[in-house]
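Quick one: structure tokens for this chain, please?
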Amino acid sequence: MATPTLTFLGGVREIGGNKVVVQDGPDRLLFDFGPSFSPQLEQYYVEYLKPRSTSPAKDLLEFGLLPRLEGLYSREALADAGLAWKAPEFHAVFVSHAHADHAGYLELIDPSIPVYLGSGTRELLRAIETSTPMRYGDHAWRVLDDRRPVRVGRVEVVPYPVDHSVPFAYGFLVRTSEGTVVYTGDFRHHGPRAVDTHAFFRAAAEERPEALVIEGTRAGPDSRRNLSEEGVRREVDRLLERHRSLTLACTYPRDVDRLSTLYSAARAAERTLLVSPRTAHLLVSVAPLLPPGTVPVPGTAADLKVYGRKRKRTYLWERPFLEEALSSEEVRAHGRNYLLSLDLVHFPELIDLRPPKGSPFIHSMSEPFSEDDINDRVMHNWLDHFGLVFHQMHASGHASASELFEIVRSVRPSVVYPVHTEHPEAFVEAVSGVRLPELGRAYPIGGR
């Protein structure tokens, strides 16, 4: 009988792009399938230059941004791509969470291959498809239950909820015929669901795993502050207490925890949180899947309203949120009453809002990875033009380097494979048993 293997088709020396294959005999399982945030992608495609919608697989394969795999992609995706379609040779795809770098290429996968994911993640993908151009394709969707094993051939997969900057994230225990592989997905210890992360790694340690595939986003040089969600709340509270003008905040659109933090801070400061129709749609979509009161729901939550940008065209899904939306004139006239969550793409609203000079701008997202980040430069150009004062307040969606290394020591796997990091060598310097994965190489599982 062939030894089970691990193969890494993405996430190697890059942030995002995880594509991990576990094969045990004839059974092949893929864990996550999305683009990376690496410079390699930006060598060919940027915000204004994208793969063609008529042939995305062809355009990505051209530059090695997709693995040339037979038996994975759909006929439609491979049209004119120079890679022949074959009947599916993968038996399941498991999605750890709804971030684009883990789920963004699902549309390319053959629709007959089952895709396993949490019920919350499935709902998030629906909400994203409704309110953005993003598409995930038609699949044989299979909804996971927390900690309930799923068997695919001879492989058993146990999904464990973990804390991350998007809700409904999972890590997986993958039990093969020669031992367990622990795949962490993305996780953190300092968010509101930290207890889930701790429970996952306790279970992982009890498995005495043969391999630990661990994300290492913050391994290596990292000057970022390690704020918790509670720390963000305290800093926002202090800022709102000091200022009596319109306050703006920019955060990730699917960071439900951060939106809840901003909402609570706004209410404590006797302000109303204003969100976009897209954010309102997201909150309405996920609220039924979370404990009551976990997230504010537009239309029922006090001190939560929608900001209505001037638009030539509106979509059906957003029209219910626009009926009582506040205009720029209202917000400008009574700015001290509001905390406005404003995405970078909506910065032209500042031309109408014209907050007083010195008004605070809360950047509740990660700091730029490099000094030449063009989005960061453009953002500061706008802030400087309107005289807004920048404040960095963010709790990362990822564990710190010291936390990562402590996890490895507590789980005690035979082999550690760092992925989702540009600095895997940091693990080598800190813990034992590290093997730096290479793209496309199959590593045996077992042999403890």
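The chain has two domains: 5-221+397-444, 229-392.
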